[in-house]
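Bit of a strange request maybe. I'm writing a small parser for structure token strings and I need a real example to test against, not something I typed by hand. Could someone generate the tokens for this chain?
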Amino acid sequence: MYSTMATPEIPKKAKAVVYDNPGTVSTKIMEVDVPEPGPGEVLVNLTHSGVCHSDYCIMANSWKMLPYPTQPGQVGGHERVGRVVKFGPGAETSGLKIGDRVGIKWVASACGNCQPCQAGSDGLCFSQKVSGYYAPGTFQHYILGTANYVMPIPDGLASDAAAPMLCAGVTVYAALKRSNARPGQWVAIAGAGGGLGHISVQLASKGMGLRVVGVDHGSKAELIKASGAEHFVDITQFPTDDNGEAISAHVKSLAEGLGVHAAVVCTASNAAYAQALQFLRFNGTLVCVGFPENDPQPIASAIPAAMIGNHYTITGSAVGNRREAIETLDFAARGIIKTHFRTEKMDSLTGVFKEIEQGTLQGRVVLDLSG
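Reply from user aminoacidic:
Good idea to test on real output. This should exercise your parser:
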């Protein structure tokens, strides 16, 4: 239905939200030049962009593992949906048409030729461009996309609901697959009420047949239960000075007294990692998803004797590949997963980031870029 649209008029300049003072919680709306698509590229008129904890970390310069500090004027964002409005040379061969809805994710482009790409791990591409960090992000009206790498949006999925699936959704889907947990087995989701976590609970329980223990702050209990968790564990009800022994014992008691088969850490908390490894039963797998901020710390409970004696596996999981993104969008289009989100305008972004900083945001925020 989208291919019949006429080519829209494209302005010379358009609005964007930039990080005007990186290192602080501050954004500013300004006008930027609308880019011209190069060979193999399409120009996309964005209508919606999700807001992710990763965007906050890039704005605040709180991820010490990044090679460079964020620069003033950086346009952030990496979960976006819009319509193709112009082709660069050769892009017509991609099969896209003017008016097609497409999405662009954290890895905005991948070369397709390096070893990670050839191994199906294009999220680790050696030549990747990361949206919103030293490449233009999605908090703006127009952006370039690689014609062969943008994600087709299913007709039955609304654009505002699709946007968070392009990072939060595909990230946790890839993580659950890497956990190797099978239908009927137990998985613990740490940070289960957050933007990634509540989608992870839905995917695990409704899409993959897993039994879920959701772990988070007590204020997020209802969201986690509604998302499909069989049990909820309130982190505030357990001591913080016992190396995680009490909460770990409780989680194990909920999973047949043995512990979970896999634990997926969606929160950016070193304490959560130290606890989650202890949630596991023998042969269990811990999947690292959330990037803790500030100076890197090892997982405190990853003692060699425990790792050896229980055959634990620790694995990392970055954003999923293109195929996993398409599969995630299909889950959403079929109604198996839904993002709990609210919609805000571009001028509300600073306030949204303050909620993320304070840890009070439930689910996700999607920016309506139409104004």
